Amino acid sequence: MNDSITDSVDIVVVGAGVTGLYAVHKLRGLGYRVRGFERGEDVGGVWYWNRYPGARCDVESVDYSYSFDEELQQQWDWSEKYATQPEIMRYLRHVADRFDLRRSYTFGTSVTSAELDERTLRWTVRTDGGEVVSARFCVYAVGCLSSAHVPDVPGVAEFGGATYHTGAWPHEGVDFTGLRVGVIGTGSSGIQAIPLIAEQAAHLTVFQRSANYSIPAGNAPLDEETRGRQKAGYAERRRLSRLSGGGSPHTGHPSRTFEVSEEERRAAFEERWELGGVLYSKTFPDQLTDRAANDAARAFWEEKVRALVDDPGSADLLVPTDHPIGTKRIVTDSHYYETFNRDDVRLVSLRGNAIERVDGGGVLLADGTRVELDAIVFATGFDAMTGAIDRIDVRGRGGRRLKDVWSEGPRTYLGLGTDGFPNLFNLTGPGSPSVMANVVLCAEQHGDWLAECLSHIDEYGYRGIEASAEAVEKWVGECRDRAAATLFPAADSWYLGANIPGKPRVFMPFIGGFGVYGDIIAGVADSGYKGFDLL
Ligand code: N01
């Protein structure tokens, strides 16, 4: 063993979010020695960091939960249709305790680099805690939304009040009572936080650069009877989810938008509106591929939202005009639009009137308007999908850096591996459904595939596995072509990296659907790992 190596294991797993936890559980169950590292002080991943008021999942709690253990899913009781961040944290802590996962992790520790030894095909993983771990396999489960993006607004350091980012919220919470607060950003985080901050603050200014499509969650407590029904139907619910596009059991209308009468179309939109949230984008199967179909869905949405907002001027600003509905993730809100009916809330559009700078007492806009503030909340999103991996200095064959290999966009085969980086796996990230689907089921899908793959490698006495350059090239093309056949590229979304100045415009997730993807990766395994080289 190299002198500087502090530990030698079979597998290093980076991240203790939904994906990392399952990977540790599954791989440890096969007898592998696993070390996990987690930047946060506890399990939870994105749920550990995003503690802003109103943080809540936009997938129903009954679906946003592990399926691998029947007793777990029968015994755990969700209290609401959509779980809050604290409840999801309780659940993930419970899972970590129940399966004794914490003992494999070192918390409060970031992996800073991983370097391949081409001779042994082992990875040397270094942490900011000074550990140097040698591992046969390196598994990234670092999350797609875990690198907070704070825009480079001049003068923020001079601001006299406090500043926050929704994705790095103080654990002790924030009391906005009596304060004049500004929220910058109206994506899911901003839209969830705004109604609750408005209730507490003396005055709230919402700075909106782009309006977003949001749909009321229709959230409600789950009573015993509903819970019982859901649990009794879990097997079927999971079966449908595994076949679905997004990892949930809801199926859309069987016909295309204009194959049905106006009356039936409106009834279908109404039903989806009542179901609440993000699934509205899949009311009809052609909604995200056909402009006219999308417009019909958009028009129904607009009618609904205008009815919620008293002031027509504010409503004009709140209705997006720059992207088809659903091509950015539809937000699932609770009382967002009604918040703009309050006297103590002001909506400021930044379109053509950007924030020029922040000074000691507030925000200055390009047209000279000054907004006095005591606190600023950045709800400005993430360097999504690649940001967290980019923070780690990953060096593969010939010392090539993964960040450089991905400089024109992520290059993977099935999202799982990249040529030149043998024995390194990336779970629920770019090149897989990840952010387009229920990530808990994505975590299980990838964790199970990985476990089978490693068992195969060991069963046949290989040292490792590496995606071929040809397979990577083809998969990158397939992801690009599938996205190009939809309306998604029409939006300046974080799916395309458009929110980060200078980031290449590449549609990063696999958009073909969770079920379709599951069939593809299962087929690859069945074929003896076609597209990978077994080493
Ligand atoms: O981030 P976002 P998010 N000046 O990138 C604005 C998931 N999520 O944290 O659209 C002014 O969507 C930016 O404006 P624009 C979910 O998948 C889920 O809200 O770029 N404004 C936008 O309005 C979601 O999609 C839940 O013009 C600036 C906002 O900041 C993803 O995470 C809850 C700016 C950023 O929106 C990300 O959501 C929360 C600037 N310089 C998040 N820079 C659930 O419901 C950026 N903006 C589970």
UniProtKB/TrEMBL annotation:
InterPro entries: FAD-binding_Monooxygenases, FAD/NAD-bd_sf, Flavin_mOase-like. It holds the Pfam family FMO-like. Residues 217-262 are annotated as: Disordered. GO terms for molecular function: flavin adenine dinucleotide binding; N,N-dimethylaniline monooxygenase activity; NADP binding. Its cofactor is FAD. Keywords: FAD, Flavoprotein, Monooxygenase, NADP, Oxidoreductase. Residues 224-238 have a biased composition (Basic and acidic residues). PANTHER family: L-ORNITHINE N(5)-MONOOXYGENASE-RELATED. Belongs to the FAD-binding monooxygenase family. This is Putative (Cyclohexanone) monooxygenase. It comes from Streptomyces gardneri.
